[in-house]
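Recall from the previous lesson that a structure prediction takes nothing but the amino acid sequence as input. Here we apply that procedure to Transcriptional antiterminator, BglG family from Paenibacillus typhae. The sequence below is the only information supplied.
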Amino acid sequence: MGSITVAKVLNNNVIIAQHPQYAEVVVIGKGIGYNRKSRDQITLSSVEKMFILRNQEEQEQYKQLVPQVDEKLIEVVQEIVLHIMQSSNQPLNEHIHIALTDHISFAIRRNEQNIAIHNPFLYETKEIYPEEYRLAEYAVKRINETMAVTLPPDEIGFVALHIVSALSNRHISEVREHSLLIGDLVAIVEDNLDYRIPRDSLDYSRLVTHLRFVLERLRRGETVRETSSLDNLMKREYPEMYSLSWKLTKIIEQRVRIPVYPAEVSYLTIHLQRLAQKKEDEADMEQQR
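The prediction returns the following tokens.
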């Protein structure tokens, strides 16, 4: 396994070291800097639950961040990252160490100053990324316990997006863009139908999940099989919803700058028609009362 040589101790949980394969690295591990001094050797096999930042840019950012944050926060973020890795059984982009530490540190400062930031896409995030949302719930709970703070539920949504970003190896801005886009598309649907979809309903969940998968298919470059018979049927039977679906796919194209397969219009029409029918059924029930 080899060993690393301590170059500098930043605090009890973070050191700068020389790695036999990656040259200078930032090493994060519970108690890894405790009682260490320059030129100490640490065998890699003896250090459990340790993260190595290999990317030069990430290292520099993290070195700047460490002196600005509470050491307890470094420790709890490391615990959270480990939990995410074990729960998802997937590698994480190493940027999460910086992104999460920085975000939570700022959130705690805002909380102390009673500056509340509302997360308008909490429902969307929960629906689009349920697994990541559950991991974020755990993260915020551990932060509140360890740091003796009370971060609001809005923070769960923000943390979830950072987890999505790290697991999918996508930049947080792209993840946020997709959440914003889905929120905008839902608002357009509600506007056109003059119907607010209950956020805890199965209908809402189905629509958001479908839109999420449209974006995921586009991101991966997956082809969607043409179904001209379905397309003709949707156009003929549900012209209003077909037109709305076409409008939504054009908005998606403009925002993500990737062409949307025509077949997506037909599949989306089915979801929209179900919502339109639900609205009519509710109106009928209201009249009968």
